[in-house]
């Protein structure tokens, strides 16, 4: 069984590790002041934790030869890198005021990596506790319970080497990141570094990582160079359903079911987005057929069995901007079904609690090509479906 590896400032972690915890909180600046971290390390060892622990103090008490700037840089680097940040705040306004801790807590509050703990007697903790509850951050009044929560959240971890270590565990294990890194490795490329720019969580308790942005340093094997100036934006793949009704042998006469919805990103026309029905699920195990059938029903009020959908494949939708793919499915409607769909025009659908409000509109392919109604990606999906027959 591997042992816990403690990394003190200004040292660096092993080239490969599977899990990491940063022990954040007030640090003694006088040898006579209380240092809670030795107790934390003993508890982590007793809990069977066998990963890396970042300790923002020198191993030898009072050895601050590396200097203030190097200390700040070290803390920022490994707060970014670690999988879980344990904030233990035994605040004492005389010896452990935790002023820097307040700032660091705010910096990582929405990172999805924080566990908060503090003695019930600690002063001036109400504000931190309130924000923890707003972000569904677990909080405790016992050091062992705080650390046990961190260990449980990490679980078995995941092995990462070199620049891969810059990707925290919750992001590394996400379906969308694994799709991206697997493709890069298959091409012979290597992730030499990354910096998380933002994360966006959804779900009842913000437990599902929906979207994130990473600034990445990628070694491109075929060109023997590194590219460092790009951001990758990621979200779950979408299922898009091309629902259509053939009117004649002329493809331009084919009627297409379109969903109109206000989207803040719209920058043309009436600022409503018109696209084929579709969307994603925050349930990682859901397949494109189930998601597609659910989205069609949710956005149009018309239900079909997942087995009726025909799968056409997956491609990136905006490959220079986002890593996600659209899984395109098609479903041909008969005259009665398209008539029922027409009756949904003007009726609001969607999920109001998610601020989603959708309306059915039906256009011919000719109208979609002649008018600036939908984007290039949707035109490509529609024509792919119709030309596949």
UniProtKB/TrEMBL annotation:
InterPro entries: Nuc_deoxyri_tr2 (IPR039470), NUDIX_hydrolase-like_dom_sf (IPR015797). This is Nudix hydrolase domain-containing protein. It comes from Candidatus Uhrbacteria bacterium RIFCSPLOWO2_02_FULL_48_18.
């Amino acid at each position: 069984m591997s042992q816990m590896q403690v990394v003190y400032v200004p040292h660096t972690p092993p080239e490969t590790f599977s899990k990491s915890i940063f022990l954040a909180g007030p640090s003694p600046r006088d040898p006579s002041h209380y240092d809670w971290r030795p107790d934390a390390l003993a508890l982590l060892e007793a809990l069977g934790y066998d990963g890396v622990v970042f300790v923002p103090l020198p191993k030898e008490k009072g050895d601050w030869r590396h200097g203030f700037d190097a200390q700040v840089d070290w803390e920022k680097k490994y707060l970014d890198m670690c999988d879980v940040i344990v904030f233990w705040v035994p605040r004492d306004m005389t010896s452990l005021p935790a002023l820097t801790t307040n700032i660091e807590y705010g910096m990582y509050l929405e990172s999805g990596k924080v566990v908060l703990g503090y003695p019930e007697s600690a002063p001036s903790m109400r504000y931190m506790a309130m924000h923890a509850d707003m972000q569904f951050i677990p909080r405790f009044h016992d050091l062992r319970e705080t650390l046990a929560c961190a260990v449980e959240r990490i679980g078995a971890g995941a092995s990462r080497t070199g620049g891969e270590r810059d990707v925290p565990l919750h992001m590394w294990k996400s379906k969308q990141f694994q799709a991206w890194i697997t493709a890069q490795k298959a091409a012979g490329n290597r992730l030499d570094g990354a910096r998380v720019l933002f994360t966006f969580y959804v779900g009842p308790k913000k437990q599902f990582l929906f979207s994130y942005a990473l600034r990445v340093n990628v070694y491109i094997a075929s060109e023997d160079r590194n590219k460092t100036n790009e951001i990758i934006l990621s979200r779950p793949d979408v299922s898009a359903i091309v629902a259509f009704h053939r009117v004649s042998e002329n493809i331009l006469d084919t009627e297409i079911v379109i969903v109109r919805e206000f989207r803040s990103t719209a920058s043309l026309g009436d600022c409503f987005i018109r696209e084929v029905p579709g969307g994603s699920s925050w349930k990682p195990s859901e397949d494109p057929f189930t998601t597609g059938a659910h989205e069609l029903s949710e956005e149009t009020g018309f239900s079909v069995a997942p087995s009726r959908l025909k799968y056409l494949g997956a491609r990136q939708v905006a490959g220079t901007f986002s890593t996600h793919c659209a899984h395109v499915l098609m479903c041909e409607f008969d005259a009665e079904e398209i008539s029922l769909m027409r009756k949904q025009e003007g009726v609001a659908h969607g999920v109001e609690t998610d601020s989603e409000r959708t309306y059915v509109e039906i256009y011919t392919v000719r109208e979609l090509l002649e008018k600036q109604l939908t984007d290039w990606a949707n035109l490509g999906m529609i024509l792919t479906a119709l030309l596949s027959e």
